[in-house]
Every structure is written in C-alpha cells, then in structure tokens.
C-alpha cells in the first residue's frame, strides 16, 4: 500500500478529513481537519491494512504569515514498513487541537512539550502542564514573535 | 627507610605556621561536588578517569552531598530552572567553599548568549566564582590547570575566610582552556 492508497482510505472512511495532500515527497503527508484528527489517528492505528502503531514524533510549527500554528504527526507502521505524516492547522489567536493521547500514549509528553513551547491547547489531554520550562514561565518561546523577558525571578537575562 | 632512619625521625618537631599547615591541608584535599550540567560534564568525567586522574591532586572523591564538598565545578549550561537548585546547593556547602566555572556556558551563556531564552548568562550572576575556565568544552588539562590554580589560591588564603567579603582580596582567575 502506497501513500496514495492511504490517502484514499482515509477519505473513504472519514469523508472530509483530508484538506490537502502531497504524496510525491520524501515524507508523504496529508493535512487533516482538526476536528477529525482523533478519528484519523484511530483509523491509522487500528486498521489491519495500515497498522500505524507507532508515533515517531509530534512537533509544532509556527506560520506567522498564514496566522497558523501547526502540529505534525509522524506515524510509522512496523507491520508494513510505511511512514506517513499528518498535519493539522489551527488559528494562531485561539490554537486548539483535540489530543490524540487516547490513541497514542506517546503523544502525552510530546503534546505537553508543544503546549509548553507553542501554546497550543490540546483538548482532552489528561495532564496539560509545562514540561520543560518552569511552571511560572510566561509565554511560549518557540513562537516567532516571542520576546525574551528581561529578568526571570529577579535574575537578569542579559549577558 | 631503614629501621635506624625511622627511629631517628621519632620525637622530631616540625615548625610551621598554623595558617600554612591548614592551607596546605585544605588546598590538597579539595573535594568536588558531584554534578554535571551539559557537555562540559563529559570532560569533567574524563578528568576523573585514569588518563587524566584528578585523584593525583587530591580531588578524586566527588562527593554526592554538598555538606561534604569543598569545591563546586559548574560544568555546563546553567538554565534558569537549574539556577535555583545550584544556588541552593551552593548555600548548603560548608565554608570554606570555592567555585570553578567550567566552559563558556557557565562563564557567560556560551552559544546560548543571544537566543537562549532559558539559559542563565553566566553562573556568576547567582554565585561567586573563583576560577573561570574558557573553552567549549575546555580540555581536561585546562580543568586540572584551573584546579591547581585554585589550590594555589586556597593555600595563600587566610585561616579564617568567610564568604564574599574575604574573596574580594582575591581576584577571580581566568584559565585559557
Ligand atoms: S561550554 Fe560548550 S561544551 Fe560546555 S556545556 Fe556549553 S556548549 Fe557544552
């Protein structure tokens, strides 16, 4: 099964889920409507023809010009040695994406990291706290418009 | 030594000032606190291993408790989150205590000086430093050089020295790594 068939299968079983698709690259990807992402992940994970039981990575991307934040899911199927990438966009001023922790337990810490650094709210996440930065840190540093604070807890941040 | 020689040393008296004796003892048994923060810690560990053998200079026992340690080797990137822990560990060490800042990160923020939002720009912003070692990372020889320099400073320092006040008499030293 190639990437095109995977795309067809998603479209067939979950109509309207795929918003964009690019199959002719090193990592074939499909852009998924955010309200369908959990269903798509469940399908990718459970379908006996796909068996994407492993999530290799979950990362965030900031697109300030498009006013979008994006989450990228790298899935891998041990069964058929397949890789597939899902992307989900969310508006920058109110970033919300359903959490996929119910399908991939791996996503738990990765979603916390993306929340920590990009400020994307993962709805339904069991424990959405900062994971790398201190709990009283303000702002989300990997956003392109982030300004480093002058001080943190009274210690200067200047060289 | 022959038996007669041994007997001839019995009952002898060595004269020295107490300051010199204590300084000699302190300087030759600087026990570091066990912790490493980033890549520089790898070089620190190499310094502790057989090839460089920090034990030759009396600094072999890396102590897991700040109460038993004399010198804190800050080897690596100090993040803001770690800074409060380092300050607390430093406060828990008993006097006299010394600090070696190892590597560019601990000296000034190193590669993260411009864009490291979470990195402290130099450990001397929170604790006083006696010896700075440059380099990214410094070679183990440079750490040994820093340690020996610190030993010389310690041997010269007075019997009673308390915290920052006394330290003003001794300028921090910079070692080229
Ligand atoms: S100074 Fe260089 S080697 Fe040392 S901790 Fe920083 S980046 Fe790593």
UniProtKB/TrEMBL annotation, chain A:
One GO MF term = quinone binding
A GO cellular-component term linked to this record: plasma membrane
Q: Does the keyword Zinc apply?
A: no
For this UniProt record, give its keywords in alphabetical order, as a comma-separated list.
Answer: Cell membrane, Membrane, NAD, Quinone, Translocase, Transport, Ubiquinone
What InterPro entries does this protein map onto? NADH_DH_suC (IPR010218), NADH_quin_OxRdtase_su_C/D-like (IPR037232), NADH_UbQ_OxRdtase_30kDa_su (IPR001268), NADH_UbQ_OxRdtase_CS (IPR020396)
Which residues does the UniProt record annotate as the domain NADH:ubiquinone oxidoreductase 30kDa subunit?
31-150
Give the principal location in a single coarse category.
Answer: membrane
Mark the transmembrane ranges: none
Reactions catalysed: a quinone + NADH + 5 H(+)(in) = a quinol + NAD(+) + 4 H(+)(out)
**Gene3D superfamilies reported for this sequence:** NADH:ubiquinone oxidoreductase, 30kDa subunit
Q: Which family does it belong to?
A: Belongs to the complex I 30 kDa subunit family.
User: What is the protein name stated in its UniProt record?
Assistant: NADH-quinone oxidoreductase subunit C
Task: Look up and give the organism this protein is from.
Answer: Eiseniibacteriota bacterium
Automatic annotation (TrEMBL), chain B:
Which GO molecular function entries does the Swiss-Prot or TrEMBL record give? Answer: 4 iron, 4 sulfur cluster binding; iron ion binding; NADH dehydrogenase (quinone) (non-electrogenic) activity; NADH dehydrogenase (ubiquinone) activity; quinone binding
Q: Which GO terms describe its biological process?
A: aerobic respiration; electron transport coupled proton transport
Q: What is its main location?
A: membrane
UniProt domain NADH:ubiquinone oxidoreductase-like 20kDa subunit: residue ranges: 39-149
Cofactor: binding comment:
Binds 1 [4Fe-4S] cluster.
Keyword set includes Nucleotide-binding: no
Q: Does the keyword NAD apply?
A: yes
| Mode of membrane association | Peripheral membrane protein
A GO CC annotation recorded here is: respiratory chain complex I
The reaction(s) this protein catalyses: a quinone + NADH + 5 H(+)(in) = a quinol + NAD(+) + 4 H(+)(out)
Can you say where in the cell this protein is located?
Cell membrane
A Pfam family this protein belongs to? Oxidored_q6
Q: Which NCBIfam families match?
A: nuoB_fam, PRK06411.1
| Description of how the protein assembles with itself and partners | NDH-1 is composed of 14 different subunits. Subunits NuoB, C, D, E, F, and G constitute the peripheral sector of the complex.
Kindly give the HAMAP family that the UniProt entry links to this protein.
NDH1_NuoB
Protein name, entry field? NADH-quinone oxidoreductase subunit B
């Amino acid at each position: 099964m190639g990437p095109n068939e995977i795309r067809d299968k998603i479209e067939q079983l979950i109509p309207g889920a795929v918003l964009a698709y690019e199959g002719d690259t090193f990592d074939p990807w499909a852009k998924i409507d955010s309200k369908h992402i959990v269903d798509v992940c469940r399908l990718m994970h459970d379908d006996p023809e796909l068996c994407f039981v492993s999530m290799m990575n979950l990362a965030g991307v900031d697109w300030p010009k498009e006013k979008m934040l994006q989450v990228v899911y790298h899935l891998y199927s041990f069964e058929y040695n397949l890789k597939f990438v899902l992307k989900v966009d969310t508006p920058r001023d109110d970033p919300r994406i359903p959490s996929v922790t119910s399908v991939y337990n791996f996503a738990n810490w990765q979603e916390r990291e993306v929340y920590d650094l990009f400020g994307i709210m993962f709805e339904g996440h069991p424990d959405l706290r900062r994971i790398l930065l201190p709990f009283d840190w303000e702002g989300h540093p990997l956003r392109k418009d982030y300004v480093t604070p002058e001080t943190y807890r009274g210690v200067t941040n200047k060289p | 030594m022959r038996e007669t020689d041994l007997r001839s040393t019995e009952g002898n008296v060595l004269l020295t000032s107490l300051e010199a004796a204590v300084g000699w003892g302190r300087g030759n048994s600087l026990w570091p606190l066990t912790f490493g923060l980033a890549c520089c810690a790898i070089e620190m560990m190499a310094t502790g291993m057989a090839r460089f053998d920090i034990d030759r200079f009396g600094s072999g026992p890396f102590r897991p408790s700040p109460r038993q340690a004399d010198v804190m080797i800050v080897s690596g990137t100090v993040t803001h989150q770690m800074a409060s822990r380092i300050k607390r560990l430093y406060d828990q060490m008993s006097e006299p205590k010394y600090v070696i800042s190892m590597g560019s990160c601990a000296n000034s923020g190193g590669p993260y000086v411009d864009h490291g939002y979470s990195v402290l720009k130099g450990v001397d912003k929170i604790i006083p430093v006696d010896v700075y070692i440059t380099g990214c990372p410094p070679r183990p020889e440079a750490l040994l050089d820093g340690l020996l320099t610190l030993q010389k400073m310690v041997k010269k320092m007075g019997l009673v020295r308390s915290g920052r006040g006394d330290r003003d008499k001794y300028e921090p030293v910079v070692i080229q790594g």
